Amino acid sequence: MADKAYITPNVLKWARESAKMTEETAAAKISVTVDKLKEWEEGTNQPTIRQAQTLAKAYKRPFALFFLPEVPRDFQPLQDFRKSGSKNLTTSSIFIIREIQQKQAWIADVYSENQEDKLAFVGRYSIKDNPQTVAKDILVTLKINPASYKTENPIKEWIDASETNGIFVSRTSFIHSRLKLDSEELQGFAIADPLAPFVFVNSDDWNAPQLFTLVHELAHIWIAETGISNGVEPDIKHKDKFHPVELFCNEVAANALMPKEIVLSFESASFQTSKDVFKVAKQLGVSSSALLVRALNLNIISTPTYQKLKKQADIDYAEYLKKEAEKKDKHKEKEKPGGPNYFLLQLNRNSRLFTQTVLDAFRGGFIEPTLASNLLNVQVNKFSKLESQLFR
């Protein structure tokens, strides 16, 4: 007979509920009935050690946690800045938020012990300041010029500049193959810590909206407002559904990615057709929709022109997505078995700066192999493969 795991029932129940997992889903993870799971959570029966270990993995909790005498203090929920009427956060969103909180807490402790200097730009401004002023400070601090990106992929330039300045940037669209992130539910979040600020961007979207989300979250860092976001790109409708902090950060992002002087420098012909708009938007690394809202706010185009171009831009965007999806499918067919590079995906998910910091600590003998592996979601004997992705 298999050994029983004499877990603490209310801790087991808390672990499931904090993972936003139903009794039915949790029971299915270990192929038992809901009634059996309830017995474990009520303390009238106990799971086997293997069953408890499986649940710990499913809930993304350490196995030892189930044996604590009482429910532990968990990470505090991030402030919810999402627009009103948004979906409740589901398991995948809860897991990625908790994962980044754990990474951020670890690196913040390390920096604090090492007496690292606080980053001057974290909380340098507030929502009472001019969004244009905040945007300019972001551009100056990161040394970015939207008029002349060095590559055709501006988001990479923004991430590199952010991490060079001590901001950890994580990007992923999944927890694992069966647990993906929904961009309508969660587009990004920021942890505005003065020692180790962390930004997360849901990559379940194309690069243009991802870039807007990234800069929006950077604005959160500059005004020291930790929280989660969705519906990030600017919209001229339904502004009443947005939190004031979100409206402010959208303004900052629009000013940083599409500075007034740059947008005004384009000839009026650039806003005659949706294809003209797309060309300018691509140059700036933004979506046509974001550029049209910006042009309307700067009085470059009238409301009727905006409505006409927006309608056509939406049609063009749908066609663009269809073509890109077809390209993606063809690319997948040509890919080697196994799909995208696992280590590159983990590198982006961990943040390049965080990965390098953990590997340096591990190589220097400052942290145990198990901790390094847990922080990077990669087995120790695979670290060399992960490290090779840092220099590509």
How would you describe this protein?
It is a single chain. The chain is built from 17 helices and 6 strands. α11 packs across α12 (288-297). It is globular and about 75 Å long. The N and C termini lie far apart (51 Å). The model has no long low-confidence stretch (mean pLDDT 91). 53% of the residues lie in helices and 6% in strands. The strands form 2 sheets. It has a 4-stranded mixed sheet with strand order 1-5-4-6, with helices on both faces. Strands 2-3 form a two-stranded antiparallel sheet. With 392 residues, it is mainly alpha-helical. β4 (188-191) and β5 form a beta hairpin.
The overall strand count is 6
Structural class: mainly alpha
Helix content: 40-55%
SSE topology string: HHHHHHHEEEEEHEHHHHHHHHH
Low-confidence stretches: none
Kindly report the spatial arrangement of strands forming the biggest sheet. Answer: 1-5-4-6
Spatial extent as radius of gyration: 23 Å
Give the CA-based shape: globular
